[in-house]
Amino acid sequence: MALIAVIGGTGYAGRYIVAEAVERGHSVLSIARSVPTDRVAGATYIEGTLLDVPSLVTQLEGVDVVVSAVSPRGTMEGLMRPNLEALNNSLPESVRLGVIGGAGGSLVAPGGPRLVDSGFPEEFKAEALEAIGVLEDLQSEQTGRDWFFVHPAGSFGAWNPGERTGVYRDGGDVLVTDAAGESYISGADLAVAVLDEIEQPKHHRERFTVGY
Questions:
Q1: What gap in Å lies between CA 167 and CA 8, rounded to an integer?
Q2: What value does the mean pLDDT take over residues 174-201?
């Protein structure tokens, strides 16, 4: 079993990842700017922030995998990308880094344009582009660290939580859609995909999309 740290572990994606990791028997550290009253039994909760990388690195000592489930919105807009890059450069090379990005960077078809360039809602473009920047930094970094980057389906979020089925599809670089052209995955099944990748890595220094 691994020691897994989830930055943003009390947010929408983060809390599902924490719950799935605990359920599978891993040791789990949930890191957020405040400790919630509603906690996943079996997880350890501490206060920490991506905005203070030196302190965060100290808190992450001994972990095997770090998953960032932080969104580049609100007070994090414009700050997630540089701080994730600083974190990636500061962690021991033995630590695997996973990043939950947005759907915007996924391709709409093999070799096709990105979703963010294909009628993407204007109000979400800034955070989509920042998440894409995080991916670009990972693709160009030279530490040799193993990492993975997950693009959730288009209709992913707290407004549409869904259920845990334990089933999902991996679309590689391409947005996953169903027969009707809809793109969706529940928070719980995104977490299943993340823990599957941690336990049985298939995407070494790669991104991948998930959906039904």
A1: 24
A2: 97
